[in-house]
Fold:
Amino acid sequence: MTTRKRLAWIAVDWGSSNLRVWAMSDADEVLAHRGTERGMLGLSSTQYEATLLDVLGDWLPENDPLDVIVCGMAGARQGWREAPYLVVPARLDTLAEGAVVPSVQDPRLQVRLLPGLCQHRDETGKEFDVMRGEETQLAGLVAREPEFSGRVCLPGTHAKWARLVVGELLGFQTFMSGELFRLLAQQSVLSHSLSEDDLADSACREAFVTAVQDVSTEPTRFTQRLFAIRAGDLLDERLPGGEARGACLAARLSGLVIGLELAGALGGLDESEQVCLIGAEALCHRYALALEALGYTSRVIDNERAVLAGLALARSTVKHE
Amino acid sequence: MTTRKRLAWIAVDWGSSNLRVWAMSDADEVLAHRGTERGMLGLSSTQYEATLLDVLGDWLPENDPLDVIVCGMAGARQGWREAPYLVVPARLDTLAEGAVVPSVQDPRLQVRLLPGLCQHRDETGKEFDVMRGEETQLAGLVAREPEFSGRVCLPGTHAKWARLVVGELLGFQTFMSGELFRLLAQQSVLSHSLSEDDLADSACREAFVTAVQDVSTEPTRFTQRLFAIRAGDLLDERLPGGEARGACLAARLSGLVIGLELAGALGGLDESEQVCLIGAEALCHRYALALEALGYTSRVIDNERAVLAGLALARSTVKHE
Structure:
């Protein structure tokens, strides 16, 4: 840390595969940032403290205890210590009330593990669902815009769609889109036909948009249209050759998977309601394009900004306890 | 071969992963049967003859040439020799007209590789599609029932649905259901929650049927309901414990995947029209149960009987050339 501003607390996003830490000032400015691949899946519960000290020990003051606010899978049952799920509907500005304190040896670490959220099946069509980590990004949205109401999408391996009303999460849905795309692109018969797509290319973009619209019109043909990607590679003479061919087909696969998600997630949403996307820039751009193809507008909030605002909001609640 | 009946020809189903051969009498009775895992994926084009001699060389007479009728991936571009696709609509009783003769050293082998079928995209909603092997099973149905008209389903890794009118295949659709189920069950986050299902168990059967109906009613929620299987494993207190839990969840996954296929494949089909299933007994039973859950009746033709009848029909055409 080369800045003169003083370290006041530490923000931590501890996911399944990655650990990201930020040194924060008392005004919630980022003083320094580090990331590693030491996520929950590679750790036993006794390894978390040592991992944390390993990654950020040199940031810590000599004696003073420091708030370390953690969201994500570190609070799962198979993580550091379980922070039990809060049940929706749930207010997002009081997540810290469900935080748990794991036992630590180093007195400088005042760790709080934030809880995830869960949802039970009910007669209104809600399904069993869980999130860990995304609730903190949603809290970040609420921290920045306390009056926000509307539909929020967090694209990713397990994409989340949340319905917020003035700081309260009423319900949410998880779609396995990212994982499904990866399995199909890398491990199915389609893998022989695909390369990396590029939505800046007009042919790719058109293939993507057409796929979104196709699956939205006829969702029941989803798995048939998957196989047609392979058959099209064998038969479609209008496809470009070379590298561009695999890129177009990958864009079509992406459009089919994201389009099916959107068709399910947008149910009941008026086209005049803007969707708020929270996530990595390129992925959010992809979703924005898909939404546009179906007549919806969107705006994007960067996921790092969202998670830091959510952790800062949680820390402010912890302090006032 | 312990029978006194004389070997007249050899039937071969040469798929991607398996090779199955039958010694046939002139009346098309099975005299002997063998199977190996030496499928197309493990062979280069120069290895087919040796493989065939290895598997059935001891069946061959000293000098007489013998018809060897082959369906499946041996006729693919990456197989023994390419038997180019016939384009639908196509008559199923004249497949042999598209057969090709690969070059062989052994004069006793009179090999014919039957063609697959392909379909081009058109304005009626037909998609690019291909089949290799299933067309011979369909020909087997036509051989047994020349007047057959209706919808035929061949479940499997890439399930085929065909529309037949009096011996002619008008169009078909391939659904990636089997492959999708396997990927999700074995490689996705769901793998932690699943074990083998058993539709003879009433709880499994109910989970399967409910899933078929759920996805048929709301197909756009497909990828969301996939994730809900995992969330249900964490949260649903009504699920049985132990081994039965994973079996019920596997049955639900199977129901979601097959149900989405049926919702797409049954479009425009009146409930009074019976679906003809051709395939392995257990899988056909699963499809029959799913069809019943949606109000349709079905009947089953064993896939070995179908493929042998199709190969016999092709051989009879070859002989009359």
About this structure: Chain A touches chain B at residues 118-121, 127-130, 158, 173-177, 179-180, 183-184, 187-189, 218-228, 230-232, 234-236, 257, 260-261, 263-265, 267 (CB under 8 Å). Chain A has one domain: 82-102+114-321. The mean pLDDT of chain A is 95.
